[in-house]
Design a protein that fits this description.
Elements (H helix, E strand, L loop, with lengths): L5 H21 L11 H16 L2 E21 L2 E18 L5 E4 L5 E12 L41 E7 L1
Antiparallel strand pairs: 1-2, 2-3, 2-4, 4-5
């Protein structure tokens, strides 16, 4: 098992959080899907479907991470679990997709939110640095950007190699 680097892990958490919220604003989870579990993907896909049915778009303008703290790190069954508190700030509002007009929320000031994120990693995972090839066609793939092969469309399964986000709650 590789050494746990807290600073690198916090950076990874911040990046995944920002990628997820950016994907929600874009209305497409494709670029973040390999960083999140099926449950998290389903939760946000359902939310995006609801927005789309009303022709609305969720906005998180001026999104940033104020602070990230590891609350707990433990092993359970065949997984390593890390619980994280992430304090974020952003303008939180919904607009009409066609007109861009504000429907609900505040587009004039940022709010601060407390997010609890849970990440899991399989124990005895494969070494990610050795695998940078598409599982579908063998082409080189960039796991840190989209995780989707630009040639055949296969999604890289990060779950076999690294931490993935399995839960997120916001207060």
């Amino acid at each position: 098992m590789n050494e746990f680097n807290e600073a690198m892990f916090k950076t990874k958490v911040d990046n995944i959080f920002v990628k997820l919220y950016t994907a929600i604003m874009k209305g497409n989870l494709e670029e973040v899907s390999h960083f999140i579990s099926d449950d998290v993907r389903e939760k946000f896909s359902s939310y995006l479907s609801t927005l789309n049915s009303k022709n609305e778009r969720q906005m998180y303008d001026e999104l940033n991470v104020k602070n990230t703290t590891i609350l707990n790190r433990y092993t359970e069954d065949d997984k390593e679990i890390v619980e994280v508190e992430l304090i974020s700030r952003y303008m939180d509002y919904i607009i009409d997709k066609d007109t861009g007009k504000l429907i609900t929320g505040d587009d004039t000031r940022r709010v601060e939110k407390r997010n609890i994120l849970i990440f899991e990693k399989k124990i005895n995972t494969k070494d990610l640095s050795l695998v940078r090839k598409c599982p579908g066609c063998g082409a080189s793939i960039s796991v840190n950007t989209s995780g989707k092969c630009e040639y055949c469309g296969s999604i890289f399964n990060l779950e076999d190699y690294d931490y993935i986000l399995v839960s997120i709650t916001t207060n």
